[in-house]
Design brief:
The protein has 129 residues and is an all-alpha fold. Helices cover 71% and strands 0% of the residues. Helix 1 packs across helix 5 and helix 3 crosses helix 5. Involved in transcription antitermination. Required for transcription of ribosomal RNA (rRNA) genes. Binds specifically to the boxA antiterminator sequence of the ribosomal RNA (rrn) operons.
Amino acid sequence: MSRRKDREAALKVLFQIENKTLAINKNTAYEVLELKYDSFSGQIVEGVIEHEEELVSYITPHLKNWTYDRLNKIDKVLLKMASYEITYKDTPIKVIVDEYVELSKMYSDDDQYKFIHGVISKLNQDKEK
């Protein structure tokens, strides 16, 4: 599976967990999506779940004129995934921006990709300080 497909699969699992409208847990999501725990998608899912509070506190100051609770669920998941990769993976920032902007174009509201791009860029600037 390509890294893009891995990210998309992780997004689907984490969205189902975030959504909480289905009786789904991480193990069920893995089975439904036929993911492997040791895959890149599995690493992202595990990392976002394990570091969720930290990731949310990392994202929140970069939401200009916005609060985390007001974000739609797909954007919350995308930003947590991106911040996880920025913080815990060696993925180049250009790749992170490109991948999550593309996922936002596919799954979020029409122009939300611009917002996602801006927040990810600010997260990266903060990390470089």
